Amino acid sequence: MVKKYSIGNEELETLWEEVRELSLGTSNHVERLQSPPSPIEFLRNYVTPNKPCIISNALEHWPALSLWTSDDYLCQALGSTEVSVHLTPNGRADSLVPHPADSSSLCFASAHVEHMSFTDAFHLISDSGESGDVVAYAQQQNDCFRSEYGVLGSDCDAHIDWASEALGCLPEAVNLWIGNNHSETSFHKDHYENLYAVVSGEKHFLLLPPTDIHRLYIRPYPAANYSYYQDTGGFDLELEDPVRHVPWCSVNPYPSQGREEKEHNDFPLYFNGPKPFECTVKAGEILYLPSMWFHYVKQSPRTIAVNYWYDMQFDMKYAYFNFLQSVNPIA
């Protein structure tokens, strides 16, 4: 019989403090480099300690940095090319929303995916959210930049050379993201080393290291999907059948007005603990987001970005994370 162990809040608080003091620093700001690091510097100073950074002056050689500021260029280059667009009524795809049959509980809602010409998608994204009926976001995470948007490939690097050399591989996937300030992405983590390059606009990140997993109150929620009806402009939200549960972070770092006190009471480890790391990634900059880091993302105004997902190493760090995830804190 396997014995179950638990850790208490004091042990968790010590862990949060020690990780910041020994590896990440006590400031809640992400370190900014003024130029790309050498592969060995990147590996030694950021990948190995699992530490994020922002690299400025990293994309000047990309034609995209100037070309993609022109709506006409993008629409002429892609034109009638069919792309995938994620639609929601509120800009919150892959996030927790009120349960369709019980507004006192929550479910995990995935966006409706619509396929349309790039020109139609681009205009919908640019204009969406203003009337409050639909928010569109190009966020297909299936190597879409090298497939749906392949015609733009020569406008960017196929990979980040110093990162590829440091990590010993080429990216597993390259994705294009186009959204406006009405879209947001709730706290989640990825099993990839992420190089996130902003071409236009700005991305705003809240970041928490993997050791802060218990602060996000990951719980199972029933999965649901939005359906969008173009003739009426309305949405339905339906639970999956058969029922499937998705483990997801419960914390909304920006509670709506009137819910602040309840959120603070429900999730004290988050709101009473160390502040998340915060950063804004501007056009021409790259964020290195280490594997397993939790991140919450907003953008402004309309933002276009390309991200490179490199396979993470399933090494001792992954084992440590799984162990921490398996123990039960005393909340």
CATH superfamily: Jelly Rolls
Main sheet overview: 8 strands, mixed
> Any idea what the radius of gyration is?
20 Å
The overall number of domains is 1
What string, H for helix and E for strand, traces the elements in order?
EHEHEHHEEEEHEHEEEEEEHHEEEHE
In percent terms, what proportion of residues is strand?
35-45%
CATH class: Mainly Beta
* Number of DSSP strand runs: 18
Computed structural class: alpha+beta
Alpha plus pi helix count: 9
Q: What kind of oligomer do you see?
A: single chain
Classify the helix fraction into a percent range: 10-25%
**Low-pLDDT windows of residues:** none
Distance between the termini: 25 Å
Question: Could you give the topology of this structure?
Answer:
Layout: E1 6-8, H1 9-24, E2 32-33, H2 39-47, E3 53-55, H3 64-67, H4 71-78, E4 82-88, E5 95-99, E6 102-110, E7 112-117, H5 118-127, E8 135-137, H6 161-167, E9 173-179, E10 184-188, E11 192-208, E12 218-229, E13 234-239, E14 245-249, H7 260-266, H8 268-271, E15 277-282, E16 286-289, E17 294-311, H9 316-326, E18 328-330
Parallel strand pairs: 1-18, 2-3, 6-12
Antiparallel strand pairs: 3-16, 4-7, 4-8, 5-6, 9-17, 10-17, 11-15, 11-16, 11-17, 12-13, 12-14
